[in-house]
Amino acid sequence: MVTLRAPAAAALSVAIGLIGAVSTAGAPPRVQARISTPGQPIGVAYADGSAWVTSFDRNAVLRVDRATNKVAAVVPVGQGPIGVVSGAGSIWVADWSGGAVTRIDPATNRATATIPVGPSEGPEGMAFGAGAVWISHKEGAVTRIDPGSNSIAARIPVDREARYLAVGAGAVWVTSFDLGTVQRIDPATNRVVKTIRLGFLAGPQGVALRGSTVWVVTNATGRLIRISARTNRITARIKLPGFPGPEGAVTDGRAVWISNNSGGSVSRYDIRRRKFTGTRRTGRQPRGIALGGGSVWVVNSGSGTLSRVAASLR
Fold first, then answer.
1. Residue 231, class by beta-carbon neighbours within 10 Å (0-12 exposed, 13-18 middle, 19+ buried)?
2. Closest by Cα among 75, 40, 73 to 56
3. Least C-beta-crowded within 10 Å: which of 5, 43, 125, 187?
4. Residue 32 Rama label (left phi>0; alpha psi -120 to 50; beta)
């Protein structure tokens, strides 16, 4: 998921790194293809051998075939789609302008349901897990959708300007850009059980999870933050090279991949070696990022392209 609104300007760092300056030694990630995805592309998910890209201006989702690196289908959805996620055999899309979620059947490339989640200019981030679809709202809420009935199962108050979501370690994790927090939701009770403060000016955006480790990127302070899901404590604050304005993050357990909105690039952080091992230019204003099919898929909103990058450590 990514947000439509531009990231905040640079802000003063509010924390001292727990890890020293990082190394960027190593070959930069290899770009395998650059694919035209017009209409202000924003979000991306990978499923069924394809990358699914939201096209905000065209009110559509573009299906990019992994085998051909070409748009294989254009699926009409609601107004101003941003977030997208796969789960329960479907593709789910957050229609930011329309205040709804659209469900797509990848077998037919057709929308099968529209679920109002309101209000308009609100639904952004998406994640799937714990048997549900989770959607963040800028006014400070997370909606839970039951895929069995296509109905809202819960609406959970969270900090305002809720952005990205991830599910794992028995919880749902959501970032708040304005208040500089990551909040932990218990899916058994649909309540926030922990608020982790990253710093008021941090501007957290992307969140990714593998095992018991949560990774968060902070747009304003340019950090990759590591959190233990066992203790709900920050265990590292790692400075990104330069000032790239990080936005999205994904992980496969070996590396964390970060889309850098201001830097026009994707960065690779090697988890075992505990250092950044490469950054590659992808296009203007990278936002959405996804893993799948042996590749990292990066949406360049300002360029109207999708970059396919080899998901290797070298």
1. exposed
2. 40
3. 5
4. alpha
Q: What is the pLDDT of residues 88-119, one digit of tens each?
A: 999 999 999 999 999 999 999 999 999 999 88
CA distances, 264 to each of 23, 150, 235, 289 (Å):
19, 37, 28, 13
Distance CA 259, CA 265 (A): 6
CA 313 from chain center: how many Å? 21
| CB neighbour class for 222 (10 Å; exposed up to 12, middle 13-18, buried from 19) | buried
Full-model pTM: 0.92
- Residues 177-212 have pLDDT tens digits of 999 999 999 999 999 999 999 998 999 999 999 999
Query: Residue 290: CB partners within 8 Å, gap ≥ 6?
Result: 44, 45, 46, 51, 250, 296, 297
Residues found in the chain? 314
**Which residue(s) pair with 157 in the sheet?**
141
Q: Measured between alpha carbons, how far is 75 from 66 in angstroms, rounded to an integer?
A: 17
Q: Hey, CA dihedral for 39, 41, 47, 50, is it positive or negative?
A: positive
Closest CA to 217 of 262, 272, 254: 262
Could you give the maximum distance between any two Cα atoms of the chain, in Å? 51
Q: Which amino acid is at 234?
A: I
